[in-house]
Amino acid sequence: MITNSTMAPSATSKSASASMLMLLQTLAHGCKRIIRNPLTAAGLVVVMLLLIVAMFAPWIATHNPLAQELSNSLQAPSSEHWFGTDEFGRDIFSRLVYGSRITLYIITLVTVIVGPIGLAIGTISGYFGGVIDTIFMRITDIFISFPGLILALAFVAALGPGLEHAVIAIALTSWPPIARLARAETLQLRKADYIVAVQLQGASSTRIIFRHIVPMCLSSVIVRLTMNMAGIILTAAGLGFLGLGAQAPLPEWGAMISTGRSYMLENWWLVAAPGAAIMLVSLAFNLLGDGLRDLLDPRN
Amino acid sequence: MNVSNLLKYCALSMAISAAIAPSAYAVTPDDQLVIGMSMDNLLSLDPASASGLDVVGVNSNLYDMLVELAPKDASQISPAVAKNWTISEDGTHITFQLRDDVTFHSGNKLTAQDVAWSLQRVLKLNLALASTWKTYGFSADNVEQAIQATDDYTLEITLPEKTDPKLILYTLGSSPSAFIIDKKEALKHEKNGDLAHAWLTTNVAGSGPFELKDWRAKDRVLMNRFDDYWRTPSEMKRIVMRHMTESQSLRLMLERGDIDVAMGMSIPDIEALKKDDDVRTEADIRGTLYYVAVSMKDPKFSNKKVREAVRYLIDYQGINDSIMPNYGVLHQRPVKLGLPATLPEPGYALNIEKAKTLLAEAGYPDGFKTSIRVLSQLPFINIATSVQSTLAQAGINAEIITGTGNQVYGAMRERNFEMLVGRGGGGIEPHPHSNLRSLVYNPDNSDEAKLTNFQGWRTAFYSPEINTLIETALLEKDAQKQIKMYQDVQNLYDTQIGAIFPISQMVDTVLLRTDVKHYEGHQAATTRLREVTKER
Amino acid sequence: MLTFHLSNSRIKRVLGGLSSVAITLLGLLALTFFIGRVMPIDPVLSVIGPDADNSTYEQVYQEMGLDKPIYVQYFYYLNDLAHGDFGNALLTGRPVIEDIARVFPATLELATVAIIFGIFIGIPLGVYAAVNKGRTVDHIIRVISLFGYSTPVFWVGMIGLIIFYAWLNVVGGSGRVDLAYDGFVDPVTGMLLIDSALAKDWDVFQSAIKHIILPAFILGLNAVSFITRMTRSFMLEQLSQEYILTAQVKGLPKHVVIWRHAFRNILVQLLTIITLSYGSLLEGAVLIETVFAWPGFGQYLTSSLLLGDMNAVVASVLLIGLIFISMNLLTDLLYQVFDPRTRK
Question: Best label site of A187, B34, B158, C48, fewest CB within 10 Å?
Fold first, then answer.
């Protein structure tokens, strides 16, 4: 994805608060268009579904996701166990339902960490330029010149396996693209008339960055974060699969595939269900992100 | 061949290979044995530093030993490079007479000097495998006197400390450090006085039935037959060992005949293959034990009542029935199964009510919080999951901390754990001392002693009474009395409630194609493939 | 996820030369080195096993230089590096450089076949989607390409093995070649397809093809998606240009307009895209190599990490960093040289 052109400088002449308003308007207007595009709508529906399932997990799940029943292990899907049971006799459907909470937890936490950090580094770097820019961008380069999963792997190896550590590792590897994006936006905004005007009024740099520049970058950063979510899900699942993510007995989807692997040939449902769940959710985020990008892309 | 031809060939062969059934070459060749196994623990082939059972299985086919232990009854010692041996009256000297017709792969004759040098080298390098020898009193300083070649074909071992000489013979027939290295060949590759350690890590200078052709870590080991082997040369021209950790792949390839032997498969796959007529299984009992350990450095577990409660909170039967098939068989004593000294099972069983009472008496009526360190592998993780759920029933809330072998045993060595599920306990030598030394013996319980090789020290279980009994039993010459003493140790361990609760004796299950004959797994992991044939 | 960043700073960096690359690499080096040293994995235990006694432990600990402060160790390491010595790997006991030279071709081979899949599937799909913009086909291709982004490769790999190896038996199982052929061909390039062709050992060649086809295809899925999407968007841009309309008006056949005119103009852009995704395949390789027991770079890196084998990890990380940076630089250079719009 070429990111330097996601946002045109069309809005640069308006004030920041007006631009926020415009973003909201665009979004409201966009909702209509989202619904009109069936693919984006499908993505939105699945994401909403994920939210609902995660929120009402205890009511949706048919069994306790951690309850072991060794006598009832490895049962094929049936009306009692919709997606069958695993090697400890735990209900896979219920584990998937509770697993959605873990997935959401990872996505949310990573996004909450990455968004502000990326924005801050990008805007500061872009606004001040010079030495600060060089230093920040060199650090960004170090992180970016490296495939995310491998760097995450190294971090998790350093911190020790576990859900929280996986989140930190993924966050550490996914802020640089956000920072790059925010910086590119800031570079375009910096010379805009209204920013110069505010500067002349004597506003402090902090104020300019946080009141005027950050809001302008927000929409493209949000789109970018949405598109990142699919990647986050896949990286988290990959870490879980390698045994470095969420630990037993947590029903994390990647870890479920990893343990189900031993039983795969006879008991396909052990890996089929969580794998399909990962694919569905990450596809949904991709569709949504794709739709949002089209929506906010001024060329459309 | 030019590029366009090559491309055509690519396209053609893709089409062909997709169209025809590949049965034409799916079966392994008649004169090759193809083995799929995990080589995760195969880091060095050097007999002085190689640790783990995997390397014994490899080196047993590349090197020779002085003596060998019988595959199914390891207490039977048979001659190999040594024709015969005598033990002096006072039990302090062992003299070996060597064969004179053994040659190394290099063409050099194998002499007693090679044997002496190989064994001295283990102590001089002081790497992983020196530990066993050090517990017998050997050291880098005394080993040149203690192990000597008196002439080309006579080797004399003088025991630096009194011990049971049988134990030394067992070690010589089973330890990965007992392989005989070609001294001349090895020393050609010595660097900075390293006794050829760097070279021998990846190369072999042996006299075994096979020569090493190629070894790539975590990839494969290739061996070719050594035609001048002093026994009858093998019928197999080549042995291919391939690093495969995926049980699924092993199973598919074994079913298909792409491999002849598969090791380290998971239970569901083994169970599925038991129905296959072309595949048979072979289970070998190993000396090591699966156990749950607690640290007595922790005030909770230093309380005997708490330890007893924990002993009631393990579902031995459930674990052995549902988790351990093909990994181990129920065993609750610190001395391995099958020895004359081993006592019948004590019959520990899950009893939540009793455990609760004990916990209340110990001052923990509502249980407590703790953690279980465990390897993130089968079957360890499943044992821990089971223990976690039974502990919870008595109010003990245990968090599971997974890790690699390094992390789990590393923490144990530093006495930095509360509970732990692991495997260990010596037992390579078919002698009660081997297990007890590793699991129970702890001559000095101070932190400074750092007896990190003793699991007794790691768990801070310290019983002077048991220590003394272990020491005297070792020197007892009357076999019946010795057995009695070892049984007393086990009874004491039961009443004093040691810090390690054995659950299962380890079993290694190997799966083979039925056309592979004369494969005999060894209890000490020294499985020798020289007699394997294929009948099709 | 493939990402592609073009910014002014990148172009400046190309012009700025290699010094900044060196700084980046040095930073990467420091980062991995220190990660390695705080890792809770004890490399000494990897060497001596869990049951060695304390005197052995102390001896090996000192031999490995771990008793010195971290910055001293880092300095020593840099010093060795300056002399071209990357140290020995614990895992194999051999120099890390030799190890990497051995495992890397396997990954390179896998990635190359994967990118071939990416090119030959991705470009036609992309062009087709662009030509049929807004129609059902376009939507279908869009969903297919998003699928490529959304699949957990390890999962598809497992399912693929079951279907194509276990059930249909049309591809080889794990590994690079049937085990019985292991070691038949002496490595020249390290890439088995080329080596076996050079040795004219067609049995091995055929076996190798059967083994590489599935993992390479699955690894290539991500590249297929990326290339499809980029091709589509490049083509759309071209198709809206005036000269295309002119050509159409002139009555040239449609396929001539599309392939001779429009497609030719996006070749440079495509080339840069392909270069970029080639580098990113390394990431997927870590997981694919685990599933298919492919003895490549990804497996080497993962197992070294889990053993705390820092010499191997740091060198591998440096190599990957180097590849990524040079791929990015190459991309920028391609733009500089061929694309008139970025010429100053």
Answer: B158
Per-window interface: C 77-136 vs A, CB < 8 A: none
Same domain for A50 and A21, yes or no, is no
Quick one: DSSP state of residue C94? S
As for how many domains chain A has, the answer is 2
Phi–psi pair at B87, nearest 5 degrees = -110, 130
Q: How many residues does chain B have?
A: 536
CATH superfamily ID and name for C99-310+319-343: MetI-like (1.10.3720.10)
Q: Nearest-CA residue of chain C relative to A242?
A: C287
CA distance C321 to chain B (A): 24
| Cβ neighbours of B274 in A, within 8 Å | none
Whose structure tokens read 């001294």?
A: B183
State whether A30 and A178 are in the same domain: no
Q: What is the CATH number assigned to the segment(s) B286-508?
A: 3.10.105.10
Task: Indicate whether B423 pLDDT > 70.
Answer: yes
Highest-confidence range of A208-212, B157-161, C180-184, by mean pLDDT? B157-161
Kindly state whether residues A9 and A86 are assigned to the same domain: no
More reliable by pLDDT, B343 or A297? B343
Residues of C in Cβ contact (< 8 Å) with A146: 28, 317, 320-321, 324
CB contact under 8 A, B389 and A68: yes
| d(C-alpha B262, C-alpha B279), whole Å | 10
Q: List chain B residues with CB under 8 Å of A266.
A: 268, 272
Amino acid at the residue B191: K
| Structural domain spans, chain B | 32-233+514-534, 286-508
* Inter-chain residue contact A238 with C154, CB threshold 8 Å: yes
State how far residue A182 is from chain C, nearest Cα, in angstroms: 12
Q: Closest Cα to residue C185, out of C161, C168, C202, C173?
A: C202
- Asked if A278 and C155 come within 8 Å (Cβ–Cβ), the reply is yes
* Whether residue A31 is found in the same domain as residue A43: no
Q: In chain C, which among 265-294 make CB contacts under 8 A with chain A? A: 280, 282-283, 286-287, 290
Nearest CB to B272; choose among A73, A88, A265: A265
Contacts of A1 in chain C (CB under 8 A): 3-4
Average pLDDT over residues B48-63: 86
Q: Is the same domain home to A158 and A186?
A: yes
| DSSP codes joined into one string, A24-52 | HHHHHHHHHHHHHSHHHHHHHHHHHHHHH
Model pLDDT, residue C11? 54
Residue span of the structural domain in which A90 resides:
39-296
A95 & A204 share domain: yes
Question: Quick check: helix, strand or coil at residue B376?
Answer: coil
Mean pLDDT of B95-119: 96
* Average pLDDT score, chain A: 82
User: CATH second-level architecture of B32-233+514-534?
Assistant: 3-Layer(aba) Sandwich (3.40)
Chains touching C (at least 3 CB pairs under 8 A) are: A, B
| pLDDT above 50 for B57 | yes
Give every CB contact of residue C9 below 8 A, 6+ residues apart in sequence: A137, A183
Of the candidates A70, A160, A266, which has its C-beta nearest B268's C-beta? A266
The answer to whether A177 contacts C142, with C-beta atoms less than 8 Å apart, is: no
Nearest 5°: the CA angle C166, C172, C176 is 140
Interface confidence, given as ipTM, is 0.79
Flag whether pLDDT at A10 surpasses 60. no
Q: With an 8 Å Cβ cutoff, is B86 touching chain A?
A: no
Residues A90 and A201 in one domain: yes
Is A76 touching B (CB cutoff 8 A)? no
Contact B79, B67 (CB under 8 A): yes
- Residue by residue, DSSP assigns C105-134 as HHHHHHHHHHHHHHHHHHHHHHHHHHHTTT
Q: What are phi and psi of C63, to 5 degrees?
A: -60, -35
* Residues of chain C with C-beta less than 8 angstroms from the C-beta of A180: 5, 7
Mean pLDDT over B520-535 rounds to: 88
pLDDT band at B455 (very low <50, low <70, confident <90, very high): very high
pLDDT per residue over C66-107, tens digit each? 888 888 888 888 888 888 888 888 777 788 888 888 889 999
Domain boundaries, chain C: 99-310+319-343
pLDDT of residue A4: 38
